[in-house]
Amino acid sequence: MKLHDDCRPCLLKQMEATARAAGADEGLVGQVAGAVGSELERLWDPACSPPAISAPLYHLTGSICGEDDPFLAAKVRYTREALRMLPGVQARILESGDPFEAAVRTAIAGNIIDFGTGIYSGLFDLGKTLEDFLQKPLFIDNVKELQARSASARKILYIGDNAGETVFDRPLLRLLDGAELYYAAKDGAVINDATVKDATLAGVHLHARIVSTGTRTPGTLLDQCSDEFLELFESADLVIAKGQGNFETLTELPSLGQLFLLFTVKCPVAARHLDAAMGDMVVMKW
Fold first, then answer.
1. How far apart are CA 45 and CA 177, in angstroms?
2. Helix, coil or strand: residue 203
3. Which of these, 38, 184, 246, 285, has the minimum number of CB atoms within 10 Å of its CB?
């Protein structure tokens, strides 16, 4: 997905929110806004995806504020809350008429834990969202194709998204355990994206080998990823990628056939791109 002019004010708003999360007073927030505005004009390229532009802006904001991981406390808090909920969530999935689809829906429900963009802000009502998403229609529904592909896959790469959300990936990871299973997380902090350390705190290592993408960028920009990650991406029989950032970046690639994107539509630009509504759930083959 390409940049749109509507991304400009959204990116500025995101950087101001990041500065406040880092403890900046309004004076410093103003300094961040000025520096980010100038850098945004320098970097702006309509041929790029939004994450390709946002990544250096997040790092600039952190540098100005002197905080490498401004959302660390929130990441830990939501991971612990999700872990408390996991036994009940897992039981409900196993009791459902279609555990695979219920696990997919649970993974998408966890995608609301996002401080980077979208229709959610402040506190997230995880319980209500899980309840709603188990019933809500899927805007794009490639669940059965995903299930069939996963049944025959020998090597699966699962690309995670946000910390806390990682816990709600675990029921689906459990259902994929017949394959050689890898879970990719960020090499370092960016927004509240899960790092390798965050994914380990969430218990993902109980189901899959956790690997680093080698990047600190939202989404997955393959030209910036490590050789190890690229080998996994290219050799996997199935790639599952979570979150709108991965939709924005990975749909810049030719359709691969073995890639499935699981996310919630969180911004007007993505909604227009898909002819969807804000908040729609997507399981999309690419």
1. 41
2. coil
3. 38
Cβ atoms of residues 142 and 283 within 8 Å: yes
Q: Indicate the pTM of the whole model.
A: 0.94
Which helix (H) or strand (E) segment holds residue 76: the answer is helix 72-95
- Residue reference for tokens 């049944």: 151
Mean pLDDT rounded to a whole number for the chain: 94
| pLDDT at residue 213, as a whole number | 98
- Nearest-angstrom CA–CA distance, 194 and 20: 20
Is the distance from CB of 159 to CB of 220 less than 8 angstroms?
Answer: yes
CA 114 from centre of chain: 8
CA geometry: angle 266, 103, 72, nearest 5 deg: 55
DSSP bridge partners of 242: 262
Instruction: Give the DSSP letter of residue 111.
Output: G
Look at strands 138-141 and 155-159 and give their pairing. Answer: unpaired
Q: 């025959």: which residue's tokens? A: 152
CB 218 within 8 A of CB 228: no
Q: Which of 244, 219, 187, 272 is nearest to 51 (CA)?
A: 219
Q: The tokens of 55 are what? A: 């990544």
Please give the structure tokens belonging to residue 235.
């050799």
Rounded CA gap, 240 and 282, in Å? Answer: 12
From 3, 15, 107, 8, select the one nearest 56 (Cα to Cα). Answer: 15
Any idea which of 53-62, 112-121, 225-234 has the lowest mean pLDDT? Answer: 112-121
What is the rounded CA–CA span in Å between residue 261 and residue 253?
13
Tokens of residue 107, six digits: 């993974």
